[in-house]
Design goal:
Strand content of chain B: 35-45%
Largest sheet of chain A: 9 strands, mixed
Structural class of chain A: alpha/beta
Helix content of chain A: 25-40%
Strand order of the largest sheet of chain B: 3-2-1-4-5
Radius of gyration of chain A: 19 Å
Shape of chain A: globular
Distance between the termini of chain B: 30 Å
Oligomer: heterodimer
Radius of gyration of chain B: 14 Å
Number of strands of chain A: 11
Number of helices of chain A: 13
Number of helices of chain B: 1
Structural class of chain B: mainly beta
Largest interface: A-B, 31 and 26 residues
Distance between the termini of chain A: 13 Å
Strand content of chain A: 15-25%
Helix content of chain B: 10-25%
Chain lengths: 374, 97
């Protein structure tokens, strides 16, 4: 397949008290339109990716964002928990490949700081199952269960989890839009406040505001999406076949590789869903970067670093760049786009030609994988 | 949960009550979910019941260190602070045996 990227736009990610959801969507959306050199009336559809805004009392986000950008054609809202962005991109691709549309704008946006931290934490549990909410589980706790199972089965160490956080904070320092611009040491990660054992505060991605937008088109451009797949699994962790593997990652990546004609060894740069440090370790295994159980070693050895074998999360990932839920999947695409066009200043992977994004909803109930090439 | 959901859910409780099972994995939560503040820190485990069903359950009434394969019995407990509508949510928790 070939779905062209015409333009991108992104806001800073962080605690953006002065900006409303509409402000953020407008900022990212209009930047993307400007770069794509398109007027609002040339956009055939806008798809908004967002998970939590309903809690504010406002639904109908497709229309809201279309209105702010002056778009009158099709508008809709996609929700797939933390995979909202990736799934919205997939839906945009579907509509473009159908031939019904020429240009589609995808805007991923999330405004989490209007909620209190405990309200946000509870709201995020909407991505989990009812029995998980009833048991008192939180998202850190859900991933802690996977971390424990991974440590028991493969001997993965807390220091290897910490290596993910160290790397992603270091990369975020080089990304002007990232939420965090400070480095962390392994000792700092290991000794930070325990949230749900074995995961500490610095193993967990933050609560963030932000928006990211992309114009996808049937009009040719140098950089394009060559593979797009979404796969699903049980909402609850208890119903999965395995606690140490996200099957939907394997399924979605298999499809995306098949469509694009490339394999994992062709990937020059990677953005994976590190909502918690263990998630990046499992992602590297499930995408086939390294064998199952060796993700910890891979990161710890520096192979996923900027100068390493397969630079992973050059944006800073969810941990360092921030995780405004609906925006993340779109941000990942933008990071790979910047890498491929050579504009990832300060964190450029030399001669990057093929990239991959990996976006997960919940504990692995939805996974969206995209392959981007030039 | 709304009071209607609590009522509908309560019918399922008897099927899960008084069943033996084992702990597959667990975590101790120190940053609680809303309504669980008074129980913090608390432990939640993924449990496999003798019926084959797997589900997450808070683990309660234990002194010793937990281990994988620890045997448990499902018991009825108040889940958390009462819901906004005042109806008390009862549910299943796991008691090591």
């Amino acid at each position: 397949m070939r779905v062209n990227i015409l333009g991108v736009g992104i806001t800073k990610f962080g605690e953006l008290w002065e900006k409303s959801l509409a402000d953020l969507a407008l900022e990212a959306g209009s930047k993307a339109l400007k770069e794509a050199n398109l007027k609002p009336d040339q956009i055939d559809a806008v798809i908004v990716a967002n998970m939590l805004y309903s809690k504010s009392g406002q639904d109908h986000l497709g229309a809201l964002v279309a209105e702010s950008l002056g778009i009158n054609k099709a508008s809709s809202h996609i929700e797939a928990a933390c995979a909202s962005g990736g799934v919205a991109i997939h839906q945009a691709i579907n509509s473009l490949l159908s031939g019904l549309y020429q240009n589609v704008l995808v805007v991923g946006v999330e405004k989490m700081t209007d909620l209190s931290p405990s309200q946000a934490t509870s709201a995020l549990m909407g991505a989990a199952s009812e029995e998980e909410r009833q048991s008192g589980l939180t998202f850190p706790a859900l991933y802690a269960l996977m971390a424990k199972a991974h440590m028991d089965k493969f001997g993965t160490k807390r220091s290897q989890l910490a290596a993910v956080s160290v790397k992603n904070h270091a990369n975020a320092c080089l990304n002007p839009n990232a939420q965090f611009h400070f480095e962390v040491t392994p000792e700092k990660v290991l000794s930070s406040t325990m949230v749900a054992d074995p995961l500490t505060l610095l193993d967990c991605s933050p609560i963030s505001d932000g928006a990211a937008a992309v114009v996808l088109s049937n009009t040719p451009s140098d950089i394009f999406i060559s593979g797009s797949a979404v796969a699903s699994d049980s909402v609850g962790l208890s119903q999965r076949k395995s606690l140490v593997e996200i099957q939907a990652t394997r399924e979605a990546s298999k499809q995306a590789f098949k469509q694009s004609g490339v394999g994992i060894s062709d990937i020059d740069v990677l953005e994976v869903h590190d909502c918690f440090t263990i998630a990046e370790i499992m992602a590297l295994e499930d995408l086939g970067v390294c064998p199952k159980g060796e993700g910890g070693k891979f990161v710890d050895s520096g192979k996923a670093n900027l100068g390493g074998k397969l630079p992973t999360n050059t944006s800073g990932g969810l941990k360092g760049c921030g995780h405004p839920v609906g925006a993340t999947g779109v941000k990942q695409l933008i990071e790979i786009y910047d890498q491929l066009r050579g504009s990832a200043i300060g964190r450029q992977v030399k001669d990057a030609k093929v990239g991959l994004t990996h976006n997960v909803g919940g504990t692995g109930a939805t996974v969206a994988v995209h392959v981007i090439q030039r | 949960m709304t009071s209607v959901e609590i009522w509908r859910n309560s019918k399922k409780l008897s099927d899960l009550l008084n069943k033996k099972g084992r702990i597959l994995t667990w975590t101790k939560i120190t940053t609680p979910s809303q309504g669980y503040e008074s129980q913090t820190p608390y432990v939640v485990a993924l449990v496999e019941l003798e019926t084959g069903q797997k589900l997450p359950l808070q683990v309660i009434d234990f002194q010793a260190e937990l281990k994988v394969n620890q045997k448990i019995l499902t018991v009825i407990r108040r889940l958390k602070q009462p819901a906004p509508e005042g109806v008390i949510e009862y549910g299943i928790k796991a008691k090591p045996i």
